[in-house]
From TrEMBL:
InterPro entries: DNA/RNA_pol_sf (IPR043502), Endo/exonu/phosph_ase_sf (IPR036691), Endo/exonuclease/phosphatase (IPR005135), RdDP_mobile_element (IPR052560), Rev_trsase/Diguanyl_cyclase (IPR043128), RT_dom (IPR000477)
Renumbered residue ranges of the record's region Disordered: 735-756
Name of one Pfam family that matches: Exo_endo_phos_2
Alphabetical GO biological process terms: DNA biosynthetic process
PROSITE patterns per record: RT_POL
PANTHER family found in the cross-reference section: ENDO/EXONUCLEASE/PHOSPHATASE DOMAIN-CONTAINING PROTEIN (PTHR36688), ENDONUCLEASE_EXONUCLEASE_PHOSPHATASE DOMAIN-CONTAINING PROTEIN (PTHR36688:SF1)
Highest taxon above the source species: Eukaryota
Gene from which this protein is expressed: LOC117240075
Sequence ranges assigned to domain Reverse transcriptase in this UniProt record: 420-673
Protein name: Uncharacterized protein LOC117240075
Species: Bombus vosnesenskii
Gene Ontology MF terms in the entry: catalytic activity
Length: 756
C-alpha cells in the first residue's frame, strides 16, 4: 500500500510517530509513504539561510530515524515560497521509492500554483533493488452488446469463416482442435469489428452545465493573471494580486455550490426516470444506484511462518519476501498472490491420496488401467463409436444406444445455445454466451459436426480443459488467507472425488463404455489458471483429482459417486434408519423411543459411513457436522431420558476422536430446524435477515424521488422472498408470525407517498 500525506504547517504541529503509525501504519514493511507539503520547516541543509524549530526537529529526526524508517528528504530546486525566498515545502519519502527526473542536488521541480507557495512536482517508480512493484492496470475492453449490429456480426463471421468441414467423414482429434481454433479466431475478429467498446466517461461530465463551464473559464483566466503577476512581481501590484485572490476564492465557492446543486439535480432526475414499465432496465438501474457491487481486488496475502513451503512451491523466493513485525509473510504483488492461491487450490485436489483400502485400491486401479489401455488402443487403431458416411452424417447421426442421446444435432444444439445464461463469464477465448446465441446458422452447423466428431472419438478438446478461476473471499472471512477464498461439505467434496473410483462406479452401474470413456477424457488432465482483472498467474496448475467446481456435470457425477451410500447399512430399507442427500450435504437420521438406543445406533451408523468414505477417499469435515435430537420439552420427559438428552453426543469414533457439535437448532438448505419442529426460530431468523436487508437498502425505500410502484416491486423481489423462505413447511399461520412490525416495515416504507 502507498500512503500519500499532504500536510500544511497548521495541521502538522509535529505529528508524533505513534499517531502516524496508528493512523497510517507507516511502521509496517508492506506499506510505502510520501509525506509532502508546507511543513514550515527551515534548515540550512535544504538551502534555507536560517534554521527554525521545525527545521531542527526534522533534521534531528532524519539523523536518528531515517535508516529505521527508510526515509529520504527531497527539497525544491527553487524557493517554494517565492515571496520570502524560502524553501518551506519539502518531501519525506520512502527510500524504496525511486524519484525520477530529479533536479541538481536531489531536488524536485516546482510549479506555479493558485497559492502563495509553488507546488512540488515529482514522478515515482519502483526501485529495482527493492520489493515494491507499481503494477500497471491494463483495462480489459468492455463491449456494449446492446448496441451491437448483429446482422453485421453474422455477415462478417459467415464471410470470413469458410471452412471445409465435411459431415460424411470421421475427423481426427487434431483436425477437431484446428477447426475449433479457426472458428474461435474468426469469431473474435467479428466481435471486434461489430461490437462497440464502452468508452470510459468522465464521471463529472453529466453534471457540468453552462454555468459551471463559465465559472471554470473565469477561474482559469484569473489564475493566469495571478501567475503572470507572480512572475513579474512588484510592490505596486500587491493590491491587484490581493483582489484577484479574493475573486478566485469567490469563484471557487460558487463552483462548489453549483457542483453540489448540479449533482443533486442529476441524481434526482436519474431516480425519477426509473419506471416499473421498463422491466428490462428497472433492476439494473436500481442496482447501479442503490446496490453497487463492492467487489475489489484480493488484499495482500498474510501467511504465517508455517506456510513457507507453500510460498516456495509457488516459485517465490523466501528471503525476498516481506515480513511484518509478527513474522508473517506479506505478499502484495498480484501475480505472486495468484501463484500462491493457485498452489493452495491445486494441493486440495491431492489431500486425500493417502486414504482408501489397499485391496479396494488395487482392484479399482487395475480396472481403470484396463480402460486407459483400451482407450490408447482405440487411438492407435482409429477406433470410434461409429463411422460417419452419406447415410450416417455427423450433423445428425444415429444414436449408438436408442435409450441414450449420446450424439447431438443442429436443433438440439440451437436450443441449448438459446438457453445459455448471458451473465456467465467467458473463458480464455473471450467469447460470451450472448455471442454464442447469435452465431450464424453455418457456424452452428460447424459446431454440430465438430461436437459429434469429438463424441465419436470420445475426445474432449484440450483447450476446453483449461479453466479460468477467480478467487472470491468467503462471506465474513479475512481475504488475506488463501483458505478463506473460494473455490475452496464432506471436506472439499467436489475437489477430492477419486477419479478412478468414479470411473469404477460408472462401469459397475453399466454405463455405456463409450460414455464412460468420454467422462474419463473430460475430467482427467485438466488445468486451471488464477486470474484477477487483467492479471493471470504465471503458471498453469493441474487438477490431479476431483471434479472442477462450476461445471455443469460436476454435481451429477458427484451424486453418482455418492449414490450407493443411500442404500447401505439398512438405510432407507428399515423403518427407523433413513438418509437423504442434496449434492454434498448428507443427512442420516434414526428414530426410536429411547434416547440411549438412538445414540448407540447413530454412533454405529456414523462410524460405518465414515469408514465407507475413507475407503472411497472422501473425508467428512467433522467441524461442519451437527447432531440434533427432536424431542418433547424437558418438562414432559422423565429424569432418566432428560439426563440422556443432556449427554447426547456423537464422536468421530467410539470413546475417541473429535466430538460432533450437538445443536438445538440446525440449518439445512436455508431452513432453520429446531428440536421442537415448530420453526419459531426459523421465522425469527428470516425476519431479522429481512430487516438487515431492508436497512442495507434504506436509501432505496426511503427515497422521495423513487416511484412508489417501483419500491413495491423491489420489496416483492428483494425483501419478501427472505421472509417467506421455507414458509410451506411452517405450521404457524401468517397472522401469528412474531414481530409483525418487522414484517411490514419495508412495505410501509414502500407505500409512502412522495414527500412534497
Amino acid at each position: 500500500m502507498l500512503t500519500l500525506l499532504n500536510k500544511e504547517a497548521p495541521d502538522m504541529v509535529l505529528i508524533s510517530e505513534t499517531k502516524l503509525n496508528k493512523r497510517h501504519k507507516l511502521n509496517k514493511p508492506e506499506n510505502y509513504y510520501i509525506i509532502a507539503g508546507d511543513l514550515n520547516a527551515k534548515h540550512t541543509s535544504w538551502k534555507n539561510e536560517i534554521n527554525n524549530t521545525r527545521g531542527n526537529f526534522i533534521r534531528n529526526w532524519l539523523d536518528n530515524k531515517s535508516i529505521h524508517y527508510k526515509t529520504n528528504l527531497y527539497s525544491s530546486e527553487l524557493p517554494s515560497y517565492p515571496k520570502g525566498g524560502s524553501y518551506l515545502d519539502i518531501c519525506l519519502a520512502d527510500a524504496r521509492l525511486k524519484f525520477q527526473n530529479l533536479r541538481p542536488n536531489n531536488t524536485v521541480k516546482t510549479l506555479a500554483y493558485d497559492s502563495d507557495h509553488n507546488a512540488l512536482v515529482f514522478q515515482i517508480n519502483k526501485n529495482t533493488s527493492d520489493f515494491l512493484t507499481l503494477e500497471t492496470q491494463t483495462e480489459t475492453p468492455r463491449y456494449n452488446y446492446k448496441k451491437t449490429d448483429w446482422k453485421k456480426f453474422q455477415n462478417t463471421l459467415e464471410q470470413n469463416c469458410d471452412l471445409k468441414i465435411y459431415n460424411n467423414v470421421n475427423l481426427t482429434n487434431r483436425q477437431i482442435d484446428s477447426f475449433l481454433d479457426e472458428i474461435e479466431k474468426h469469431t473474435q475478429i467479428a466481435l471486434q469489428k461489430s461490437v462497440p467498446i464502452i468508452k470510459q466517461k468522465n464521471s463529472c461530465e453529466p453534471c457540468i452545465n453552462n454555468k459551471i463551464k463559465d465559472l471554470q473559464r473565469d477561474k482559469s483566466y484569473i489564475l493566469s493573471k495571478i501567475n503572470n503577476i507572480k512572475l513579474n512581481y512588484s510592490y505596486d501590484k500587491r493590491e491587484e494580486l490581493e483582489f484577484l485572490k479574493f475573486l478566485l476564492h469567490r469563484i471557487k465557492t460558487q463552483l462548489k455550490q453549483e457542483f453540489a446543486t448540479s449533482i443533486n439535480h442529476y441524481w434526482t432526475n436519474k431516480i425519477k426516470n426509473i419506471s416499473k414499465n421498463d422491466s428490462a432496465n428497472m433492476f439494473p438501474q436500481i442496482n447501479q444506484i442503490f446496490r453497487p457491487k463492492e467487489r475489489g481486488p484480493t488484499p495482500p496475502l498474510k501467511l504465517p511462518p508455517e506456510n513457507a513451503p507453500l510460498i516456495q512451491e509457488a516459485g517465490i523466493t523466501i528471503h525476498n519476501t516481506i515480513k511484518d513485525t509478527e513474522g508473517n509473510f506479506i505478499i502484495p504483488k498480484t501475480i505472486e498472490k495468484l501463484d500462491i492461491i493457485g498452489t493452495h487450490f491445486s494441493k486440495i485436489h491431492t489431500q486425500n491420496e493417502h486414504m482408501g483400502r489397499e485391496q479396494l485400491n488395487r482392484i479399482i486401479i487395475a480396472e481403470t488401467n484396463k480402460l486407459k489401455n483400451e482407450m490408447e488402443q482405440d487411438k492407435m487403431l482409429n477406433k470410434t463409436v461409429c463411422t460417419f458416411s452419406n447415410e450416417n452424417t455427423a450433423d445428425n447421426p444415429k444414436q449408438p444406444d436408442p435409450e441414450i442421446n449420446y450424439f447431438t444435432n443442429y436443433n438440439q444444439l440451437n436450443t441449448i445455445l438459446s438457453k445459455l445464461n448471458n451473465k456467465k463469464s467467458s473463458g480464455f477465448d473471450g467469447i460470451p454466451n450472448t455471442l454464442l446465441k447469435r452465431l450464424p446458422n453455418k457456424i452452428k452447423w460447424y459446431y454440430t459436426v465438430l461436437f459429434n466428431n469429438a463424441l465419436n472419438n470420445t475426445y474432449f478438446p484440450r483447450k476446453w480443459k483449461k479453466a479460468k478461476l477467480i478467487a472470491i473471499t468467503k462471506k465474513n472471512k479475512d481475504g488475506s488467507s488463501p483458505a478463506n477464498l473460494r473455490p475452496i461439505n464432506l471436506e472439499k467434496a467436489f475437489d477430492t472425488v477419486w477419479i478412478p473410483g468414479l470411473i469404477y462406479k460408472l462401469n459397475k452401474k453399466k454405463f455405456p463404455k463409450h460414455l464412460t470413456k468420454m467422462v474419463w477424457d473430460m475430467i482427467t488432465n485438466r488445468t486451471f489458471v488464477m486470474t484477477e482483472g487483467s492479471h493471470s498467474s504465471s503458471k498453469e496448475f493441474s487438477i490431479k483429482n476431483g471434479l472442477q467446481q462450476g461445471t455443469v456435470n460436476s454435481p451429477l457425477l458427484f451424486s453418482i459417486y455418492n449414490s450407493d451410500l443411500l442404500n447401505l447399512f439398512d438405510l432407507n430399507t428399515s423403518t427407523h434408519k433413513r438418509s437423504i442427500a442434496f449434492a454434498d450435504d448428507l443427512i442420516i437420521y434414526v428414530t426410536g423411543r429411547k434416547t440411549k438406543t438412538i445414540k448407540t445406533e447413530l454412533q454405529e451408523l456414523f462410524e460405518k459411513i465414515n469408514d465407507y468414505y475413507h475407503a472411497w477417499k472422501l473425508k467428512i469435515n467433522i467441524s461442519k457436522c451437527e447432531t440434533i435430537l427432536f424431542r418433547p420439552k424437558s418438562s414432559k420427559i422423565g429424569p432418566t431420558e432428560r439426563e440422556h438428552c443432556k449427554k447426547f453426543q456423537i464422536r468421530e469414533k467410539t470413546d475417541k476422536g473429535a466430538l460432533i457439535p450437538h445443536k438445538n437448532c440446525v440449518k439445512y438448505l436455508g431452513v432453520n430446524i429446531d428440536y421442537k419442529l415448530n420453526y419459531k426460530q426459523h421465522t425469527e431468523i428470516q425476519l431479522t435477515k429481512a430487516n438487515k436487508a431492508f436497512w442495507k437498502m434504506k436509501n432505496l425505500f426511503h427515497s422521495k424521488h423513487l416511484d412508489r410502484k417501483v419500491k413495491i416491486l423491489c420489496y416483492q423481489a428483494l425483501i419478501r422472498p427472505i421472509i417467506t423462505y421455507g414458509c410451506p413447511i411452517c405450521p404457524r399461520p401468517p397472522h401469528r408470525l412474531p414481530h409483525p412490525k418487522a414484517n411490514t416495515k419495508p412495505l410501509r416504507a414502500s407505500g409512502k407517498d412522495k414527500r412534497k
